[in-house]
Amino acid sequence: MAEWAGNSVAVLLSTCARCIDGQLPDLKRRLEAAGDLPEVPGAG
User: Fold this and answer.
1) Long-range contact set of residues 2-8: C-beta below 8 Å, sequence gap at least 24
2) What is the pLDDT of residue 43?
3) What pLDDT does residue 41 have?
């Protein structure tokens, strides 16, 4: 994808890192909240 965009892999990774920087607390909260979901009837 980096080559297609005309950039190096390093530039692509740097761009992605800037996009997700600071999202870890929200991600952790969402993952922990997923444990609170009700069971799906008929699953398992």
Assistant:
1) none
2) 67
3) 79
Neighbours of 4 (CB within 10 A): 7
Which pLDDT band holds residue 32 (cuts at 50, 70, 90)? confident
Q: What one-letter code names the amino acid at 20?
A: I
Cα separations (Å) of 28 from 19, 21, 23, 32, 34? 17, 13, 9, 6, 10
Q: Where are the domains positioned within the chain? A: 2-30
Q: How far apart are CA 22 and CA 1, in angstroms?
A: 24
Q: Is 24 helix (H, G, I), strand (E, B) or coil?
A: helix
| Residue 41: DSSP 8-state | T
Q: Which residue's entry shows tokens 């892999």?
A: 9
